[in-house]
């Protein structure tokens, strides 16, 4: 019997896979636990429509991320920090401070976890901070650190 899986089943298949199982296994395990349904023409059509919808949503998210990356590319954020005469900061600028400054200055909600800082910024100057918007899209946010 062919079965469309609704969830991952160990040693059988992943979600939305069409697998061949024995009739007893399908009736007594898969159907009872609502892990899948018989692969009827209606179920196969529903699966096809679901996959098309997921692809469309993924394409929309990718386009949205690319548009946001283009918008961020020509904007900058200023962050002030206490610094000595040689330009070295007494503290550090973290991704949280950059996120808060972006919210205040650009009115953009940027998640601090999406900012890719290898280490906190500890000197006055201009930096390009990578911003991971989507697995395929990375933008560069210009961060200007000024000493007080």
Q: What is the topology?
A:
Elements: E1 2-5, E2 18-20, H1 23-30, E3 36-38, H2 41-73, E4 76-81, E5 88-93, H3 95-106, E6 121-123, E7 125-134, E8 137-147
Parallel strand pairs: 4-8
Antiparallel strand pairs: 1-2, 1-3, 5-6, 7-8
Q: Write the element-wise H/E pattern from the N-terminal end onward.
A: EEHEHEEHEEE
> Mind summarizing the main beta sheet?
3 strands, antiparallel
Global structural class:
alpha+beta
Q: Provide the low-confidence segments as ranges.
A: none
Rg, alpha carbons: 25 Å
Explain the overall architecture.
- The chain is 36% helix and 31% strand.
- It is built from 3 helices and 8 strands.
- A 3-stranded antiparallel sheet has the order 2-1-3, with helices on one face. Strands 4-8-7 form a 3-stranded mixed sheet. A two-stranded antiparallel sheet has the order 5-6.
- It is elongated and about 80 Å long.
- The protein starts with a strand and ends with a strand.
- The model has no long low-confidence stretch (mean pLDDT 91).
Summarize this structure briefly:
The protein has helices at about 25-30, 40-75, 95-105, and strands spanning about 1-5, 20, 35-40, 75-80, 90-95, 120-125, 125-135, 135-145. The chain is α+β, with helices and mostly antiparallel strands.
Features:
single chain; 148 residues; 3-stranded mixed beta sheet
């Amino acid at each position: 019997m062919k079965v469309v899986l609704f969830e991952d089943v160990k040693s059988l298949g992943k979600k939305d896979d069409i697998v061949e199982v024995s009739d007893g296994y399908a009736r007594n395990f898969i159907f009872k636990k609502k892990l899948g349904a018989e692969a009827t023409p209606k179920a196969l059509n529903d699966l096809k429509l679901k996959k098309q919808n997921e692809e469309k949503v993924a394409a929309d998210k990718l386009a949205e991320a690319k548009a946001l990356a283009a918008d961020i590319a020509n904007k900058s954020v200023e962050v002030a920090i206490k610094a000595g005469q040689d330009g070295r900061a007494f503290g550090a600028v973290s991704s949280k401070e950059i996120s808060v400054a972006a919210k205040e200055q650009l009115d953009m909600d940027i998640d601090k976890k999406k900012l890719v800082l290898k280490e906190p910024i500890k000197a006055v100057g201009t930096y390009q901070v990578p911003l991971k918007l989507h697995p395929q899209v990375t933008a560069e946010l210009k961060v200007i650190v000024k000493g007080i």
